[in-house]
Amino acid sequence: MYDMKRLADLVKSLEDSLAVCMRCGMCQAVCPLFAETGREADVARGKLALLDGLIKEMFKDPEGVRERLSRCLLCGSCAANCPSGVKVLDIFFDARVILTGYMGLNPVKRAVFRGMLAHPEFFDRLLHSASTIQKLFLVPSDDFSGLSCARFSLPGLERHVKALAPVSFRKSPGRHTPGNASGPAVAFFVGCMVDKIYPDTGHAVLKALRYNQANVLMPEEQGCCGIPALASGDLETFEKLVRYNLERFDPAGFDFLVTACATCTSTIKKLWPRFFGGREKARLDELAEKTMDISQFLVDQTGLIPAASSATGHKEPLTYHDPCHLKKSLGIAAQPRRLLSANPAYDLREMNEADRCCGCGGSFNLQYYPVSAAIGRRKCDAIIESGCSTVATSCPACMLQISDMLSQAGKRIQVKHAVEIYAESIRFRD
Amino acid sequence: MRAIRAGDNRFTFRFSGKEMHTKGVLKEFERILGKENVFSEETDLHAYSYDAAVLEPVTPALVLRPVTCEALGEAVRVCGENRLPLTVRGAGTNLSGGVLPKKGGVVILTNALNEIVEINEQDLYAVVQPGVVTAKFASLVESKGLFYPPDPGSQAVSTLGGNVAENAGGLRGLRYGVTRDYVMGLEFFDAGGALVKTGARTVKCVTGYNLGGLLVGSEGTLGVFSRITLKLIPMPAAKKAMMAVFSDIRQASETVSAIIADKIVPVTLEFMDNFTIRAVEDFSGAGLPVDAAALLLIEVDGHPAQVEEEAARVEQICRKMGVMRIQAARDAAERDKVWEARRAALSALSRVRPTTVLEDATVPRSNIPAMVAAIGEIGKKYDLLIGTFGHAGDGNLHPTILSDRRDAQAWSRVEKAIDAIFEKALELGGTLSGEHGIGAAKSKYLENEIGRPSILYSRRIKAALDPENILNPGKIIGG
C-alpha cells in the first residue's frame, strides 16, 4: 500500500503553483478532451483539484489520480487560455514525475523507455529490423495515402498507420548536405519521427537550408528528445537522453539548432533546461536560446529566399494545421504560413479552428485511441470542409494522426510538412 | 465523513442524520443512465466538490450525467424516492458555492443535455436544453441576425440552465436587462420527478401562476430544468465604444448618473478603479493611463444615426463633467481594444495574489461614489489589496480582494472585509449580490437584507414544494 502522507509531502512542492488556479473553469472552453467527454477530471481545473486533493490526503489510492493525470494531451490549450496564468503543463509534468517516482513506472513503459529509447544506437538498429519485417503484419489501407492497416482484423487495430521507412533519414543517401560553409552554422535535430517515418521531411529541411545558404551540421548519431519518457514521468530516461544529445549538439559549435518537429522544438526549448538542471544548466539555456522550428529559422533568420519558379495559373488549395507545441507553446503561427505562401503553386486557405488540437498527444494516442480518434475526427472534418486538396502542418506527430483520420474517412487529401511544400518549389541552378 | 466505503461497492448516503445503504439505488441509476454515466470513484467525485467560489470543497457520494431529458427526470425521481439530496451542476462556474453538493448527496451534470432544439426567427424565441453553453448559443443566434443579450463573464463555458438558475447578468444589463428578462417558458422536474410546464412561446401569457418568475434565480432549490424557452431580439445594426479617463472617481460616477439623466441608456457602462487600471496595464501593456483615478468604458448601440448622435452626446456630457480624455473607437479593432482592457480586468487582478475573491455587492447607481470610497477605506482598515471594477451603470461593482487563503491571519481579515462590504452595501440601500447569487457563501447574510419574515415565507414555499428538502439543500435560504 502507498503511504499517502508521504505522497502528500512530495506533491506539496507544487502547492504554490497549484494555488494560482481560482477554479474559474474557463479551461472547459478550450480543452479538446473535455469537449468529447464532458468530464471534469479530464479538464485542467479537475486535474489541479485532484493534485490539491493529494496534498490534503483526500484519497485512499493514488492510482486513480495518476490515471486521470495521464488522460491529457499536454496540448497546452488550457495554459494558453488561463485567465490567472496557471502554469498547467509545468505542473502536470512535475506531477507525473512525482507520481512515477513514487509509484514506479509501469512495466511496458519501463521496457520501452529504459530498455530501448534510452539507448539510441540500439533503438535505431531495432527499428531498422522492424522496418524490414513490418510487411508481415501490414497491408496498404488505400492506394493514395501510403498508409497501412493491420493485416489481421483485431479489435483496437482499426487505425491506419504510416509504416516505418525502409531506410531511416539519418542513414539515407543524400543526407550529407553541408550547404554554404560561410553561412550561419545550423545544427539539424532530426527527431525520431522524421528519422524513422517521414524521411522526406528531413530531406526537405536539408534542401531548404541549403537553398537559404545555411551551413548544415547533422550529427549522424542522435537520440530521442525525451518527451515520451518525461510525459510518463520517467525522469531517468529523459535525463539520459538529454545528456546523450547534449554531447552531440554542443551549442558552442553552431549558431542555430532547427527541428521540423514542433514537439522536439518545444521540448528542447522549454523542458530540457527546466528538468535537467545542475552543471549543464548554462549550456542547456544556450541551446534553448538557439533552438527554433525550421519555418522560424527560414523566415526570421534568412529572410526566406523565395522560390525561383513563378506562379503558373492554377493554384492548389492548401490548408494549415497549427501544432499545439508550436503555436500554443511557442507562439509560432505566422512563420509556417509564410513558408507555405512562398510556394506559388499553392493557395493557402484557413480551415476553421486551425489551432485546435488534432488529438494525437504522443502516447495519449496509444493509450486512449478511441477518444484520441474522436478529437482527430473533428480536425479531419475541418480539413475536409476547407475544400483543400492538401493539408500542411509542422509536426510529424500531427501528420501521423491527421493521415490516419483522413485515410479512415476515405478522403484523398495529401498530408505534408510545411517545409516539404516550400522545398517543392526550390530549383537549384546547379 | 467519507461518503464511500471502500471495497464492497456499497454506498452510504447520509442525510439529515439518517443513513441509507443503497446498493440498489446505485444499480437503479446505472440502469437509467448507463453505467458510463454514473461516476463513483473517489477521484471523479472529488472533481465535483467545488465551484469558482472560495469555499471548502464538499464531496458528493455520486455523480450522474444523464444524456436525455427523460433520464434526467428519472434520476430526479429516484433521488426523490430515496430522499437523496441532489445538486444540479452546469459548468461549475458559480461564484457563491451554488453547486457545492450536500455531503453524501448526488451531483447531476447537465453538460450532456446540450441541444439547441429550435431557433424561431418568425416568433423570436429559442428552445434549449439546460446544458447548452451560453456563448455557443449566443453566436448561433447572432449568425441569424438575432441577439441574446445576457453575457455573464463565464459565458464561454457557462450553461444556459445555470444562467437561468442564477439569473445571471453580464455587461449589457443596463440596457438589455438580465437572464430573467429573456425567459419565456420553462419545463422542469419537481422534487418527485414530475414534469412541470410554465410560460409559453408567446409574447403574452397569463396562464396560471408565474412559476417561471419563482424558478428563475432559485439556484436549483425548487426544480430541475429540462427545457428553457428564451426570448430573442433583433441584433442592433450599429454600436460604438468609448473610453473616458477621469482624474477623480467622483467625477466618473457622477458622469454615469449624468448620462442616464440625459435619457441615454448605453448598452454598457463599465468602471475600473486605479488599482485595476494599473494591474491591467502591468499584465497586458495595452497603454492604459496608469495615473487615472478611474476609467469608464461606454458603449451605445442601435440604429447607426442614433448611435452617432448618442455617442456625440455622451462625449459632450463627459467633457462637461471634466473628463481628462475621451476616446471613441473608430473601427472594430479599436472597439476590441477598449473591451480587451475590461475583459483583462479579472485576469490581471487574479495574477497579483494566489487567492481572488470576487464580490458583487450592488448599490443604487447614485451611491457608487460612496461605495467606491467605502471599499477603499475597508481595504485600508484590513490591510488588503482590493481592486474594484464592474458595471457602474447597474451600480453593480466587483470589489476583488486579493490575498492568500493559506495565510490564516490574512484570511480572517478578508472575511471581515467581506462582512464590512456587505454591511456598507446594505446601508447604502443596495443588495448583497447583483448577479453571483447567494448560494452557500452568502446565505448567512440574507436575513440582514430581506428580514426574518421574508426568509420564513421563502422557507414555507421551499417546504411545500420540496418537503424532503432534496433540491440543492442549504442554498439561498439556509436550512
Describe the overall structure.
The complex is a heterodimer of chains A (430) and B (479). Chain A is α/β, with parallel strands linked by helices. Among the domains of chain A are: 100 residues, Alpha-helical ferredoxin (Fumarate Reductase Iron-sulfur Protein, Chain B, domain 2, Orthogonal Bundle); 109 residues, 3-Layer(aba) Sandwich (Rossmann fold). In chain A, strand 10, helix 21 and strand 11 form a beta-alpha-beta unit. In chain A, helix 1 packs across helix 4, helix 4 runs antiparallel to helix 5 and helix 14 crosses helix 17. The longest helix of chain A is centred in the C-terminal third of the chain and has 17 residues. The mean pLDDT of chain A is 91. Chain B has 479 residues and is of the alpha+beta class. Chain B contains 15 helices and 20 strands. In chain B, the strands form 5 sheets. A 7-stranded antiparallel β-sheet of chain B has the order 17-14-16-15-19-20-18, with helices on both faces. Chain B has a 5-stranded antiparallel β-sheet with strand order 7-8-12-10-11. In chain B, a hairpin with a 2-residue loop joins strand 1 and strand 2. In chain B, helix 8 packs across helix 10 and helix 9 crosses helix 11. The longest helix of chain B is centred in the last third of the chain and has 20 residues. Chain B is globular and about 70 Å long. Chain B starts with 11 loop residues before the first strand and ends in a 14-residue tail after the last helix. Chains A and B meet through helix 4 and helix 5 of A and helix 2 and helix 11 of B.
